[in-house]
Design a protein that fits this description.
285 residues, alpha+beta, 10 helices, 11% strand
């Protein structure tokens, strides 16, 4: 098990709270008051709030509690600790801090776009810290752990679609589903931008003594292929492995952090790729 050093963990916790506050702001000001439920537990809580009047922060915490317990058992304590902090921060900030702020009640399209921007930036920051905002992220990871053949992207899409359909039924408004999809699209773009900037992809070549550990992470966690090349350092005459892989922009930062944890002395070369063709990326046709 890879452990984080205390200063890094404290930094991640602080950034997790900041990211969660930005995420909650997008929900409070833009999406919730305009009947936009763009997936996730916050979207589900928005629907429950509309039907029952229950506080959104409290509802998100209640939904997350059993998922956090399962995640603590099956997904790793550091990840769940950060997620738990995010869930508690969201509930407290949304219900007890932002309650004094006005909400936006103008154009629904603008609410979807700017809500998506704030939510995407906030979620991107929590992902940067290798945590999550909880909820369906945990549920999807648990399903992925039980059924590895499912891609996490497919599970996320399926769960978000379910929430959007429930919202459409509750609001009795088909337009709300379309605005939710616009918001989700904006979120995804901002998450990618926060994590990896504007580059389209990364080609990573690294030299390490821990080729098996790194390649296992790339294959099983990122679901990417790896090419292994036996290599020997010319100066040290030390046997290493050179690994070559291509990753998407929203996977690169996670790979870099894990490689540094596994082997702080790894030699890494990263090249920005404007196009990646092959299995898992775009087709060559």
């Amino acid at each position: 098990m890879i452990r984080l050093k205390a200063p890094v963990l404290l930094r991640d916790i602080l950034l997790t709270v900041v990211g969660t506050a930005i995420y909650a702001l997008g929900v409070y000001i833009f999406t919730a008051p305009n009947q936009i439920a763009p997936g996730g537990v916050s979207g589900l809580a928005t629907v429950i709030n509309f039907l029952t009047g229950a506080p959104i922060g409290l509802v998100t915490a209640a939904i997350n509690l059993p998922l956090l317990i399962l995640g603590w058992i099956y997904l790793g304590k550091t990840f769940i600790l950060k997620t738990m902090i995010s869930v508690l921060s969201f509930a407290l900030i949304y219900d007890h801090v932002y309650c004094y702020l006005p909400s936006y009640s103008g154009s629904t399209l603008l609410a979807a776009v700017f809500g998506g921007v704030l939510i995407g930036v906030g979620v991107g920051i929590t992902f940067y810290c290798e945590g999550s905002t909880g909820g369906l992220d945990i549920a999807n990871l648990l399903v992925k752990k039980k059924y590895p053949r499912f891609k996490i992207s497919t599970l996320v899409l399926a769960s978000d679609i379910v929430v959007i359909i429930l919202a459409m039924i509750a609001y009795r408004n088909f337009d709300s589903a379309m605005y939710a999809m616009i918001s989700m699209y904006v979120q995804s773009k901002l998450i990618d931008l926060v994590l990896c900037g504007t580059e389209n992809g990364k080609m990573v070549m690294l030299v390490t003594r821990f080729g098996k550990e790194v390649s296992d992470f790339v294959m099983h966690e990122l679901e990417r292929g790896v090419t292994k090349i036996p290599s020997i350092g010319a100066y040290s005459n030390t046997e290493n492995e050179t690994l070559l892989c291509a990753v998407r922009q929203n996977e690169y930062h996670r790979l870099k952090r894990v490689v540094h944890k596994i082997d702080p002395d790894a030699f890494v070369i990263v090249v920005s790729a404007t196009e990646v063709v092959g299995y898992g990326f775009q087709s060559g046709g």
